[in-house]
Amino acid sequence: MGRLDRRVAIVTGAGRGIGRALAIRLAREGACVIVNDLDGGPTEDVVGEIRSSGGQAVACAGSITDPEMPERLVGLATEAFGDLHIIVNNAGYTWDSVIQKMSEDQFDAMIDVHLKAPWRLLKAASEIIRIKTKEEANRGEEIIRKVVNISSIAGTRGNAGQSNYASAKAGIVGLSRTMAKEWGRYKVAVNSVAFGLIETRLTEATDEKKLINVTGNTIPVGVPVQNIEAMKQAIPLGRGGTPDEAAGAVLLFCLPESDYISGQLIEVTGGF
User: Fold this and answer.
1) Where do the structural domains in the chain lie, given as residue ranges?
2) Which of the two ends of the chain, N or C, has the fewest CB atoms closer than 10 A to its terminal CB?
3) Which of 198-234 are b and which e, b meaning 16 or more Cβ less than 10 Å from the residue's Cβ?
4) How confident is the model over 100-155, as pLDDT tens digits?
């Protein structure tokens, strides 16, 4: 028996990195997982891995910034598994530039994926959460649902070259704390996790020019080796975190042990 048996979870950006690790860990705890990612291949791979280990998962590929995606995700959760208990707004990427060189498209893209898309998903989930909570109350049950929104220390402390990303990640903390107040009456605990250096393809130490395509935009990824080494020296634990370690921090907020924790922000930085 897992600690999340019969719980239904949506994880965005779950095809790679932190989201992938979290989707797998939620499934190991017994949750039924809706796996969302921009690309269909990685999404199906994660679902296949969960199912091969005896877990339950379904894929929902596509951009979380698509205005129709939140309704699709919530609809799939209720159609496939009959409920919705956990939402993790994890999808995102960075598109850096100093402010004088940053376009409005760059700024808007970060707000859309890191702040507006999570807001839309929570809005789409509000009705099913209200209905299910009322049904449970009528049966004399109390089930604590969970929302975990992913932030960054760029949002809590600022970071040069990331006025767009930092603004969005600061905003998600405000959204989390507001939803903790709005949804407490529906028995929903809402928290946020701000990461420092986590080793993913976006933060790979490289001096090569590497690019990815995100919804038609060409985005550079990776961080110069010298910069990564300087960051590691500033981290008391002496290294960046792994995706699995990052997922573990999010999992803490999804488990029953954290049912009375809401409206909080935790930084996961290795002591930085």
Assistant:
1) 8-268
2) N
3) bbbebbebeeeeeeeebeeeebebbbeeeebeebbee
4) 999 999 999 999 999 999 999 999 999 999 999 999 999 999 999 999 999 999 99
